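Usage example:
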Amino acid sequence: MQEEVDMKNRLKVLRAERNWSQAELAGRLDVSRQAVNAIETGKYDPSLPLAFRIGRLFEMPIEEIFDDEHDGE
Amino acid sequence: MTDLSQRDSRGPSERANHRLLALSGGIGGLAGLALATVSFVSTPQGRHLDHDAVWTSPLPLWFAILMALVWGVVIPVISWRWHRVVDEHERQAYRDGAVASFYTVALSVPVWWFLWRGGALPPVQFEWVYGAMLIVGSVVWLWRKYA
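Running the assembly step on the lines above writes:
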């Protein structure tokens, strides 16, 4: 049986470090402000292409932004 | 590259999304106004125009064809374009709304149909089912997008 994965992310922190509003980040990613808010609050997990766009924007690998809390075992 | 130097920080997809929604809303509003006006003008003198007449009174053929073209050609083209530009979060919200709409029709019609056959309700009226489908789909879509 497939387990529901609780995905965490650092998007809000990374955005705050750059003094970007949700709307500004949304504009840079070409998504809606509601999409950024939903990702930040964990209500929506982005697709792989959007996760890569986020990684490229912050110049970080995806796994440094998103964490599925898997312990690696 | 997205130009964020202007005051409007929305990306091109979001701007196109809002433009197309505004266009759909404008066309829907004009069509509704035209429908009410034509229904009123087409009602024979002396006959009272009740709220049912807007939905059920005969229409001039030219107007019926015009409305059919708007709903059968113009709205599908706008919808197709909208689905191409909308971001993945809104696409997901819209799909949730579409699933809720599907179940609204798939469940309410047989429930109503059984109750009609049992003599408890009048025959299924598609205007009510269609309205419920649109309302449920829109509420779920907006809830999934904004809540």
